[in-house]
Amino acid sequence: MVKILTGxxxxxxxxxxxxxxxRDRRGDGFISIKHLIKDKVHSYEAMRLSxxxxxxxxxxxxxxxxxxxxSCQIGxxxxxxxxxxxxxEAISIMVNDKxxxxxxxxxxxxELEGKCFDHILRKMVASKLxxxxxxxxSLVEAIINKYQIDEYEIIHKEGETDDx
Length: 164
Prior knowledge:
Order of helices and strands: EHEEEEEHEHHEHEE
CATH topology: Rossmann fold
Largest sheet: 10 strands, mixed
Low-confidence stretches: none
Shape: globular
CATH superfamily: P-loop containing nucleotide triphosphate hydrolases
Structural class: alpha/beta
Helix content: 25-40%
Number of strands: 10
CATH class: Alpha Beta
């Protein structure tokens, strides 16, 4: 079963994912921790749920102060290839070890374009393990179709669910 946490931008999807993990204390995965400077997004870190380890994941182009291998870019946001590789490797091990559920925060346009976590997301869905994914509400249908997710539960901001 795939649980899909959804909502609009800044609708607390990441916090809801963290709360779900803390409540159940099962599985493992990654969430994206947002860092702001005043009211502007500065960067994101990928945080492993089981360990709290944080890795530099995304930085807004105007705040780049050190070089890192850029995997891809969406708007002003640059994605760190080394972090994508580490997250992908960790999740691959989770799949092989049948860790369940596996959490992955903010599936989006890059995955729909075959970038970022596309490859590992395919492996996650094919594993038939329980997954918890977050994504914007406007992308749910496209992601379900692309990854051929047949058993899922959509959890909206208000906590409502739609089972399929």
